[in-house]
């Protein structure tokens, strides 16, 4: 009889806020060792899989965490992905049904992914004993012998000493009742179960037949590979725990007393009790009994305090008496009420998130870059260092155009009277120094305006077009902007290719990126110049993406190509950038809305899913590069992929409903959380995050502001769109 360890990855770990969040719950963080609780669980149960396989049941949006953390251990497993969390009974049913399809005589060992069990051999010995008891047609729960009258756990009353039928299950009691239960031989309910799958499924069929039928209908067809995504029907399964669905009703349930050390690490006092929860830099004088966790780059200093949990994340700080650790859940609920006044679902408030990012832009970033980042002649700086000094004795066309885009939008939003003048002066100087006789804009000039690089890249022309469209929309320098756009559009004919698309004169000649930004510019010009060439330009670029840029089988988008638009030879043709998957998803959704073409939304959703493969769940950021097997190629994470992740999640949330919309909004919240890691209170930012979680020390590049403002623009629009009845 083969054993199949089943790791259940549900639960949000709310009482361990702010380290534990819905996008990165406690099982995936390093609470008590240099491994996550999930990884500790995998190592603990892996030796049990004798003849069977490790099975993991988790939310679809946690796939990246699981795959990365399994790979770090060199362990493989079967991954069952839920489109929505429905509590433990549907999750266990899904695993049991999958095991039944592989091995009808198999025995499942259901364990939580987030428990602390330091004595792994003792745990495995108890499991083997439980398997023997379960072989007699029983469902066996492991009841831990209590060491204290804890009100933090549920209790089990056994019928007699040793392995025995369960007399009753008891919810978390108050301390008085807990003391009584301790004296009467009750056991802590560990939430770990052992059962032959045929027995568990028979009991589920008896007590929850609709649940089993729904979960069965959601199972994917058997096939190759180790990832099994449950169908949308799973989201309609009853949301119920296994205790309520089966354990409290079945006559087959037994309990086995367990003597190993155990904790569900449900709150910060439990983490403190392990003696292993401290992290980060902590300077202290005369404090006692405290747990301090400081995120990378954060420092905590204390003097003369005691019995406190001090948990410091980049965007939130918790200071809590360890005796009140259970109250953290109430604090999180109160934060939820403040942040989501019109919602009780726990879904992040887009209005609040928009206001927070908008405030940082309006009060910090834009004023700083409008002063320290602009010369007297109107040209925009390339970068600013931490001391507020401009860096770089040159001016690239893309930066001048991007900053004009940013301040045009700021003028449109009414964020300051001086922004329009800033754009007008900047565009006038830009035309003087960068416009060539053919109407295209040269790549770079010196700070004084002398020519450095006279080539005109397709990429730069796209941003000039976007800047001019945004200026027209803002009513800034309208005539100049329209003339410049018409001139560029006319001159682009010299770069047009007979096989479709345009040649990039700078860098690789045949690439998707420059076309992506041309599409963005064309969509910006369409409503401003309905009789112009912009609709045809946009449609031709989408046609090129559909026919060549997007891989027909994998649904991902490549970067570089041969002259006939076949993927480029060598490694350049295998490059897949998560940020560009998100950015194209955003653009295709916009284009599809305008054209009423359903292909675009489907393609966008597939691109978004590919982009999610590039999210490093440990750091909470989208990385720079994958290969065409969708494996990490560069683990560095620049700022801009975070903004594109945010934009794509938001616009796709507008197109979704129900649980799918909720998941996308949560993904957007996670993307914004990743973005905030890069942003400084001063209005500057960091650009490159290493695999080790450390940022490169360098000036803040001005080019990033376009990405941040474009993401805020989508956040602002989605907040309004989804707030409408």
- What is the spatial order of strands in the main beta sheet? 5-8-6-7-10
Count every beta strand, where a strand is a DSSP E run of 2 or more residues. Answer: 27
Rounded mean pLDDT is 93
| Structural shape | elongated
Structure description:
It is a single chain. By secondary structure, this protein is an alpha/beta fold. Helix content is 42%, strand content 15%. It has 22 helices and 27 strands. The strands form 8 sheets. A 5-stranded mixed β-barrel has the order 5-8-6-7-10. A 3-stranded mixed β-sheet has the order 12-14-15, covered by helices on one side. Strand 19 and strand 20 form a beta hairpin. Helix 14 runs antiparallel to helix 15 (478-491). It is elongated, with a radius of gyration of 29 Å. 49% of the residues are buried.
